[in-house]
Amino acid sequence: SGLALGIDAIAHRAALDNQGATVGVLVDVLNISPPQNRSLADQIIRANGLLISENPPNTKVIPALFAKRDRIQSGLAMAVFAIETTVSGGTMHAVKAANSMQRPVYVPDAVAAKYPSLDERAISGTQMLVDEGRAKVYSHDSYELITKELNNLLTRRAISYAA
User: Fold this and answer.
1) Full-prediction pTM beyond 0.85?
2) Which domain-ending residue is among 22, 40, 60?
3) CA-to-CA distance for 130 and 145, rounded, in angstroms?
């Protein structure tokens, strides 16, 4: 993920806490953005994770480069899980890239999950993705099915690369 505040940082920390591998896709590997996640970036490196960027070191971090970086995140991922986004939120860049690369996109069923502080605007983008058929809804009950789908996808890719 992109090492952003919120769910990105939570995902990186969860991977580290469970001795998993994690990769931060950044605008610049030296100027960590947001700066609050510098220590998290250091933890990723100490745990043999990766911080990668297509830009040279000391690239000025500007908003347009975050959108550009999102296509790399989608390209490295087997699937994109868009937890929460508005219709014009930054997550939509990763979703658009995933859709163009034919990567599956999943969004939570926020209403069924009974999020304690459901913000309709904050999930307007994920709802739009479902309405447009650009994402599949997942819930706790569908984790096993999604895992099977992704394992099947991985197997098909491995076979096609070997051929």
Assistant:
1) yes
2) 60
3) 18
Q: Which single residue is written with the structure tokens 């490295």?
A: 76
52, 68: one domain = no
Residue scoring higher pLDDT (107 or 161): 107
**Separation CA 149–CA 143 (nearest Å):** 10
List residues bridging with 24 in a β-sheet: 51
Please give the Cα distance from 120 to 70 (Å, whole number): 24
Which residues span the domain enclosing 149? 62-163
Q: How many degrees, rounded to 5, is the angle at CA 64 between CA 58 and CA 7?
A: 90
Q: What angle do CA 55, 14, 101 make, to 5 degrees?
A: 45
* Interval 125-146 mean pLDDT: 93
The DSSP call for residue 24 is E
What separation in angstroms does the CA of 132 have from each of 85, 135, 141? Answer: 15, 8, 23
* Number of folded domains that form the chain: 2
